[in-house]
Predict the 3D structure of the following.
Amino acid sequence: MKRESFRGRLAQEENELIIGLLRSRAQSENRTTKDETSSCVRSTMNSIFNDPGFWHRLQFGFTITYHSVSAAHDGAALFLVYWKWRALRNR
């Protein structure tokens, strides 16, 4: 219980800090209205392209796909060579 509440409180403090930093940045860029500041916070925090985890998963997906496809091609090549050899041998 204590550990969960500590983690929750830490995450909440972290989020408040990030929002505060983004609001101060927006205000320093002459975006002083509340609507513009909150839209700046929303667009920055929800952008998938700023998430390093997204890029890591994307690269991992390409890597796994490439290695799986190349392994399948190697297996298919041996299969085709075997059957071609059998067909030529039986002529």
